[in-house]
Design brief:
Layout lengths: L9 H13 L8 H4 L6 E4 L7 H9 L8 E4 L11 H9 L5 E4 L7 H8 L7 E3 L8 H9 L8 E3 L8 H8 L7 E3 L8 H11 L5 E3 L8 H4 L2 H4 L5 E3 L8 H7 L8
Parallel strand pairs: 1-2, 2-3, 3-4, 4-5, 5-6, 6-7, 7-8
Length: 256
């Protein structure tokens, strides 16, 4: 099990990591198969079995500036304020373009804010299912150097991120093209309309699934405010009527 995978595509490496996890084999002893010394992309679809010390040890072996992607999904206990955020900042603040730290129940609002303060060229950021993230993280996102480079943001299922803070964040991301804010129970029509008015003209993807407060008052405006939208998710938006959804797909008739 000590041998690595060699030069294989990142999606193959990610599938292998998931297979190891499904079989109960992903851990400190096998992590080296996924995080090899030459790795530039670290993608682990289910990092729940990992200890933070094991992940830190493997990442510490990589050259500074060598990694452009770190995606730890279902990260669980392997991300806390203590070690991993500081290591990511020190080693990869100039190179990291894609960061996903989802489901980090040990990562605090202050720890997340400190993590985001240094990255210079992030293009995508996912912090889904991080229930402790709140105003400090939101403030750090607005002030971060990567606010000018970020194209994709997911804050789905982060219940302490308020609609007001969402509006403030989106307003500071001039290149934003993809936005995921699923599970934002307090997200209402006024907030969604404000988000669309700020960035809708450039949005290519939007996920507002499980936002029960939304109604047709805002969703019907998607066609006008986000004309370039290619991917839209409205799962479990129980405030919508069938007519609201059909409205999005009606042909625009030319004026006589």
């Amino acid at each position: 099990m000590a041998a690595g995978l060699g030069d294989v595509p990142s999606d193959v490496r990610a599938k292998f990591a998931l297979a190891l996890c499904d079989r109960g084999l992903l851990g400190g002893a096998t992590l080296g198969i996924i995080i090899e010394p030459s790795a530039s992309e670290i993608v682990i679809p289910n990092a729940a079995p990992l200890d933070e010390a094991d992940v830190v040890a493997r990442l510490s072996d990589l050259a500074d500036g060598a990694v452009d992607t770190v995606a730890l999904r279902n990260a669980g206990r392997c991300v806390s304020d203590a070690e991993l955020p500081g290591l990511l900042r020190r080693k990869f603040k100039k190179s990291l373009r894609h960061l996903a730290l989802d489901g980090c129940y040990r990562l605090s609002d202050a720890g997340s804010a400190a993590l985001l303060g240094d990255f210079e060229c992030l293009e995508s950021l996912s912090l889904r299912y991080n229930h402790r993230l709140g105003p400090k993280t939101c403030a750090a996102l607005r002030a971060a150097p990567s606010a000018s480079t970020l194209r994709s943001l997911s804050l789905s299922h982060c219940p302490l991120v308020t609609p007001t803070e969402l509006q403030a964040i989106v307003g500071t991301l001039p290149k934003l093209e993809e936005l995921e804010i699923a599970g934002s129970e307090a997200l209402g029509d006024d907030c969604l309309t404000a988000l669309l008015e700020a960035r809708g003209a450039q949005l290519l993807a939007l996920d507002v699934s499980q936002c029960a407060a939304l109604t047709g008052a805002s969703v019907r405006r998607l066609r006008d405010l986000a004309p370039g939208l290619r991917r839209l998710r409205l799962n479990a938006c129980y405030g919508l009527e069938d007519a609201d959804v059909r409205h999005l797909f009606q042909e625009v008739r030319p004026q006589p």
